[in-house]
Amino acid sequence: MTDYDVLRVFCGANGGYGNELGVVREGSVMPDPQERQTFAGKLGFSETVFVDDPERGVVDIYTPTLRLPFAGHPCVGTAWLLDVPELVTPAGVVGVRLDGEFSWIEALAQWVPPRTLRQYATAAEVDDLPVPPKGEWIYAWAWEDEAAGRVRARAFPGRDDGIDEDEATGAAAMLLTDRLGRALNITQGAGSQLLTAPQPGGWVEVGGRVVLER
Question: Which Pfam families does the UniProt record give (predicted)?
Fold first, then answer.
């Protein structure tokens, strides 16, 4: 079995929750994209990262069924693990900074694939949502405290790959931040926390806590 690390990204304040991420630090052991896709499917995480150059931060990202040019929680987690100043993804170069307990990336919102951002009137409505039918990638959200920028969110990828709900999705949080044009403090899934901040030129920062699971 290929060696890989398991991280939890966008953990809550107590270190719990967060979205699991698989990282193969030595991507050279599995250079073929189809082999990588098969391996990511076997692991079953919402995303798995293959590191092709740990010093330059060159990464390759897969869901269980498809390859992604960019994704939020994989970049935040891998940046923390490698401790590099930037990551090189197929979409472009991602800025990185580590700030105490939070790890941050900066990327363009236009790199994020289309998502349906669906607003609800209350956080309780978001809490009560059933998993919707497959086919549409939905980021359901509501204000918990609009003045403070606090948001309640859940993410439903709509894919037929066993991931009915994503615990924490940095890319979708970036899209919401870009649309609203303001910094957000997002509670997603069962209790994950994502912090975001819009930057000039369509760039968005997203950050959170990362824990090495194994």
Answer: PhzC-PhzF (PF02567)
**Contacts of range 34-41, beta carbons closer than 8 Å, 24 or more positions apart:** 36/60, 36/62, 36/67, 37/62, 37/65, 37/66, 37/67, 39/2, 40/64, 41/65, 41/161
CATH 3.40.50.720 fits 111-211, yes or no: no
pLDDT tens track for 74-84? 999 999 999 99
CATH class of 5-98: alpha beta
pLDDT confidence bin for 100, thresholds 50/70/90: confident
The segment(s) of the chain belonging to CATH 3.10.310.10 are 5-98, 111-211
